[in-house]
Design goal:
Its EC number is 4.3.2.1. By secondary structure, this protein is mainly α. The chain is 58% helix and 6% strand. The protein folds into three domains: 121 residues, Fumarase C, Chain B, domain 1, CATH 1.10.275.10; 240 residues, Fumarase C, Chain A, domain 2 (Up-down Bundle); 90 residues, Orthogonal Bundle (Ribonucleotide Reductase Protein R1, domain 1). α7 runs parallel beside α13 and α8 packs parallel to α19.
């Protein structure tokens, strides 16, 4: 959106503007200090709410007409004026004035200038307190829907890899040490699960966002004969905020949205960290698409995973925004306090940052290539089959703790010889425990270890194949 902003002309000269332009100026006998105007304005960033502000005002005007507060003709005059203003803002030809403080008063003043005193009737039965809360809820609702779509795109990018990567086995890690073998598709679907929980959280948050505050006015409601449900229906809100004091002071919905975005960012950061490691020469598990990497100004050989590093780094901003919001509300009494003006920049930044990260992550995931030959060359290192061997021994009647100790000793023997478990002799296995026979070799080696898994949710090939099918169905891929 292209916007124009202009300071109060007197502000740059250090002199008060002639005449009080404030909607609340009647009780004041002088003008606002220029420094205060600059310090307290929010239009430089809340102008992003113009679409929501116009939409809310149109619904409010038509409701006032339906209850007889306005005539139908007056309401349509207001609607036409607001739509004209919206077109100007979208075209970048509307001049936002700093001395009018915020997006709401800029639009209202422009409306009055266009249609005269009829425009002054629009604010009947509402306050800027419930107006901004309505606009912000509408904006966040749209933000939730955008994030949900982008998360779905990222899930589809992971599921889209599953056909080509179906036979690839990766070393799974705990403590960044090799632990057990897992199918690559099991890895991809693990991220699908994380991002699905993010989608579920956003959907749940949307229910609480989608409650209409408009009509609760400043803090106590209004004596005007208004119909809040009429507005809720027009703006597609699921219900009405029930308490006017709560409505005026509430920013739970914004903080919950910021929290949900923070978890999205944290999950993206986990992916970024993993793939940054995997793309190193030391791991060499994955090749990132060069279009999403950058080079070095001094070292000509470098292909740096800068996009993934920035996704990891930008998570810090999103976490910081959430913390700022939590601190912002910690000591506020009921009802509205001007501190709440500080919420929007934090939420806008988190939404912009997470949406950009999601778009890029989808492209990187879709375009990355597993380095299968290199993965396979080192797959038998790290004794990934040790736990499978332990469970084989348990099936022969040995208690788990005893089996754990026996296999630990066998791993130590193999480490001393610098060989995998599968290369130990039958005599060495039987020396560890008499019940071990030739069947031990049926569970050794990563491929046979993978084939031995059975439990629901495991990396068992048939279980993973079932999950891939379910995810394709769920995501309609």
């Amino acid at each position: 959106m292209a916007t124009k902003t202009d300071q109060n002309p007197a502000a740059s000269s250090g002199q008060p503007a002639p005449g009080n332009t404030k909607p609340w100026g009647g009780v004041f006998d002088g003008d606002t200090a220029p420094l205060v105007e600059k310090f307290s304005e929010s239009v430089s960033y809340d102008c992003r709410l113009y679409t929501q502000d116009v939409r809310g005002s149109i619904a409010h005007a038509r409701m006032l007409a339906s209850t007889g507060v306005l005539t139908d003709g007056e309401a349509e005059q207001i609607v036409a004026g607001l739509e004209d203003i919206q077109r100007e803002i979208a075209a970048g030809t509307f001049l936002f004035r700093q001395d009018l403080e915020d997006v709401h008063m800029n639009i209202e003043r422009a409306l009055v200038e266009r249609i005269g005193d009829v425009g002054r009737k629009l604010h009947t039965g509402r306050s800027r307190n419930d107006q901004v809360s309505t606009d912000f809820r509408l904006w966040i609702r749209e933000g939730i829907d955008r994030a949900e779509r982008l998360l779905g795109d990222l899930q589809r990018a992971f599921v889209g890899r599953c056909e080509a990567d179906a036979s690839v086995i990766l070393p799974g890690y705990t403590h960044l040490q090799r632990a057990q073998p897992v199918l690559a598709n099991h890895y991809w679907l693990a991220y699908c699960e994380k991002f699905q929980r993010d989608r579920d959280r956003l959907a749940d948050c949307r229910r609480r966002v989608n409650q209409l505050p408009l009509g609760t006015a400043a803090l106590a409601g209004t004596t005007m004969d208004i119909d809040r449900q009429h507005v809720a229906d027009a703006l597609e809100f699921e219900g009405l905020v029930a308490n006017s004091l709560d409505s005026s002071s509430d920013r739970d919905f914004a903080i919950e949205y910021a929290f949900a975005l923070t978890l999205v960012a944290e999950h993206l950061s986990t992916l970024a960290e993993e793939w940054i490691l995997w793309s190193t020469v030391e791991f060499n598990f994955i090749k990132l698409p060069q279009a999403y990497c950058t080079g070095s100004s001094i070292m000509p050989q470098k292909i740096n995973p800068d996009v993934m590093e920035l996704i990891r780094g930008k998570t810090a901003r999103v976490v910081g925004n959430l913390q700022s919001l939590l601190v912002l509300i910690k000591g506020l009494p009921l009802a509205y306090n001007r501190d709440l003006q500080e919420d929007k920049q934090r939420v806008f930044d988190s939404a912009d940052t997470v949406e950009a990260c999601l778009q890029l992550a989808s492209e990187v995931v879709a375009g990355a290539e597993l380095q299968v030959e290199n993965i396979n060359a080192r797959l038998e290192r790290g004794y990934l089959d040790a736990t499978t061997l332990m469970e084989h021994l348990i099936k022969l009647g040995v208690p788990q703790r005893t089996a754990h100790e026996i296999i630990g000793n066998l791993v130590a023997t193999a480490m001393k010889q610098d060989v995998p478990l599968a290369e130990l002799t039958l005599e060495e296995f039987q020396a560890a425990h008499a019940s071990l026979d030739e069947s031990v070799y049926q569970v050794l080696g990563v491929k046979q270890a993978i084939a031995a898994f059975k439990s629901v949710g495991s990396t068992a090939p048939e279980r993973v194949a079932e999950q891939v099918t379910l995810w394709r169905k769920r995501l309609k891929t």
